[in-house]
Amino acid sequence: MTVITQFAEGFMNLFQTGAETFISWMTGIVPVVLMLMVFMNTLIAFLGEERVTNIARVSAKNPLTRYLVLPFLAAFMLGNPMSFTLGRFLPEYYKPSYYASLAQFCHTSNGVFPHINPGELFVWLGIAQGVEKLGLNTMELAIRYLLVGLVMNFIGGWITDFTTAFVCKQQGITLSKTIQSEDLAV
User: Transmembrane region positions (predicted)?
Assistant: First the structure.
């Protein structure tokens, strides 16, 4: 009977822990993401959707701006996960590559800009603790990680362009490389 009781208590504890985590999200990350979404949509409305679309159009023409500048600005200004929403202003063909570049950037910039991806700060802090124990400077590591990340994230985004082209050809579909007004509908 003791084993059954302990199993039942452990089973219920699992759901209680899940409920506590859910409530912490509802009072922590969910309102923050909601406020960031409101802020971004307000900023877009203030600047004008046409201006934001023009910035995306200009950045979509060049792989350096598409996979280096735009993801950096999005991550720095909006953080993870809100930065992904700027991809809606890119043509359909470039959205997978933007996502690939930005997803990596949200990790490689965490040492210098912890506000970008606070949910994974524990990973950086664990690495930093080991570096500190060796008597080394963690900011030097963070900057190197950021710089290597910028280059690798750009390469990852650009390679995804080739992957997208391959899959489009294989599936017989064509994704637009220009922004259509119906693409921006949310």
Answer: 22-47, 68-90, 142-168
Tokens for 177, please give them: 């490389």
CA atoms within 13 A on the CB side of 29: 14
Query: How far is it, in rounded angstroms, from Cα 5 to Cα 47?
Result: 61
Task: Give every CB contact of residue 148 below 8 A, 6+ residues apart in sequence.
Answer: 108
Residues 7-14: contacts with CB within 8 Å, 24+ apart? none
- Please enumerate in sequence order all residues whose Cβ is within 8 A of that of 108, keeping only pairs 6 or more positions apart, or say none: 145, 146, 148, 149, 150, 152, 153
DSSP tag of 1? -
C-beta separation of 71 from 98 below 8 A: yes
Give per-residue pLDDT as tens, 151-174. Answer: 999 999 999 999 999 999 999 999
Distances in Å between the Cα of 90 and the Cα atoms of 19, 36, 49 are 38, 20, 13
Give the CB-side neighbour count of residue 131, counting CA atoms within 13 A: 14
Across 145-177, b (16+ Cβ under 10 Å) vs e yields bbeebbeebbebbbebbeebeeeeeeeeeeeee
Tokens of 13: 């504890």
Q: Is 181 exposed, middle or buried (0-12, 13-18, 19+ CB in 10 A)?
A: exposed
Q: Are the C-beta atoms of 67 and 104 separated by less than 8 Å?
A: no
